[in-house]
Every structure is written in C-alpha cells, then in structure tokens.
Automatic annotation (TrEMBL):
It comes from Brevibacterium celere. CDD domains: WHTH_GntR. The keyword Transcription regulation applies. InterPro entries: GntR_C, TF_FadR/GntR_C, Tscrpt_reg_HTH_GntR, WH-like_DNA-bd_sf, WH_DNA-bd_sf. Keywords: DNA-binding, Transcription, Transcription regulation. One of its GO terms (molecular function) is DNA binding. SUPFAM superfamilies: GntR ligand-binding domain-like, Winged helix' DNA-binding domain. This is DNA-binding GntR family transcriptional regulator. Pfam families: FCD (PF07729), GntR (PF00392). The keyword rRNA processing does not apply. It comes from the Bacteria. Residues 9-76 form the HTH gntR-type domain.
Length: 226
C-alpha cells in the first residue's frame, strides 16, 4: 500500500489529496481494490471522510465502482493513452497559436514564466525526484495553456491533469535523460520567444508523440515481464 501523513488541512481535503497522490504515483496501482474499512484503518480516520474522498475521486475519474461496494483504481489502456495525448496535442497547438500571435512584449512575459518553470525542472532533475519532475513537467505545459488566455481551454486541460500526471509518472525509466528533457523544453521556449508557431507546434508534437510511444512501450514491457 502507501504511507500518508495528514497535515493541518481539513481531514476530508487531506484524505482526497493523499489518495489522489497515491494513485498518481502508482502507490495505489491501477486495478487495485479500495475499501472504506481498509483505508479508514490505514489513514487513522473515520469512514465518513473516506467515503467523501472516494466520491470525489470517482467524479475525477480516478476510481470506478467494483464488486461488493468496493472501488477500483482506474486502469488506463493503450486507447486511453492515444486519446489523452491526441487531446493534449490539440489543446497545446491551439495555445501555441495564441501565444505566437501575441505582441513581442506579451510573448516575452510568457517566455519568462516558462523559463521559471524550466529552472524548477532543472532543480527537480538535479534532486532525482521523479514525482517532482512529473509535476514540474506538467506545470510547464499548464503554463503554456494558461498563456493562451482561454478560460474554457484552461478548465478542460486542468480537468485532465490528474490523468496526464498518472501517465507521466508511468514513464520513469522511459523518460528522456534530464539533459534531453531540458533541451526539448528549452528548444520549445526559444521557438515561442521567436514567435515561430510552425516550429513550436512541430516541437510540441514530437515531444508528445515520443512520450506516447514510450508509454506504449512501457506497457508492452510490463506485459512481457508479468
């Protein structure tokens, strides 16, 4: 299972966050059965916040109903990977177009925000913290989406961010080296700085398709070794 520390937030919020993080990192594996009694005992709380947390995670699409009133951690198959990355590509291409057509000053502000996240990525890579790397990687792309200044686009992207994180965390040994990851994102920032929509779109497509290919390969390897 997994270890979780409950901090000073409300118990319900703590339970939701603890379970969500456990699912994202794989501490609660795909297809794993969850029961109120077991989680209540492990987290040292009553069943009420556990029940509320499971309802929230069900709304987020992270767990589904199982037999005998249990819940099961959702499994993302090859089709899910393909759909999610195709969707990301559509959304991020749109944001790229909006940003590249901004004035140089406005675009410069976006570049500054992206470079700040890039520095956070360097720190996470230097620390060898896989969870932090995944979090910052997604934050980089979220920054791009937010820069597109479309509320509905941002809401849609945020709504899928947990599933994106689950997939990013799956990569682990299939993730590019730290230097490659930085270089990929640096090249993208340079294209945005230049206002080169075609180059930026090509870079983001190559980046996302490579990630999707690596995820498919990781699934194949996991099947072979299981």
């Amino acid at each position: 299972m997994f270890e979780a520390e409950l901090n000073r937030e409300t118990v319900g919020q703590q339970v939701v966050q603890s379970l969500r993080n456990a699912i994202i990192t794989g501490a609660l594996g795909e297809g794993e059965t969850l029961t109120e009694s077991a989680l209540s005992k492990q987290l040292g709380t009553s069943r009420s916040p556990i029940r509320e947390a499971m309802q929230q995670l069900r709304r987020e699409g992270l767990i589904v109903s199982g037999p005998n009133r249990t819940m099961v951690v959702v499994s993302l198959d090859a089709e899910d990977v393909e759909e999610l990355y195709e969707y990301r590509l559509v959304l991020e291409r749109f944001a790229i177009g909006k940003v590249c057509r901004m004035s140089p000053d406005d675009r410069g502000e976006v570049v500054t925000r992206l470079e700040k996240v890039l520095e956070e990525m360097r720190s996470a890579i230097a620390a060898g913290d896989d969870f932090a790397i995944s979090t910052v990687d997604l934050a980089f792309h979220n920054t791009l989406i937010e820069a597109g200044r479309n509320r509905r686009l941002s809401q849609t992207y945020r709504g899928l961010s947990v599933e994106f994180k689950m997939l990013i965390n799956r990569l682990e040994t299939y993730r590019p080296s730290g230097e490659e990851l930085i270089d990929d994102h640096r090249a993208f920032v340079d294209a945005i700085r230049d206002g080169d929509e075609v180059r930026a779109a090509a870079l983001i497509e190559a980046h996302l398709r490579s990630a999707a290919d690596n995820l498919r390969q990781s699934s194949v390897d996991a099947t072979v070794t299981s």
